[in-house]
Amino acid sequence: MVRYRQVIRIPKTLNRRRILNELKLIYSLFNQEVRHTLVFLASLKEKDWKLITHPWDNFFFHRLSKNVSVTEIIKHIAMLEHYVIDSIGSQENGAVLSTEGDKTLCEQKHKSLIACYKTVHEENLAKISNFRKSDLDKNFTFIGQPYTGIGLLWMLTGHHAFHLGQLRSMTFPRTI
Question: How far is Cα 85 from Cα 117, in angstroms, rounded to an integer?
Answer without folding.
Answer: 14
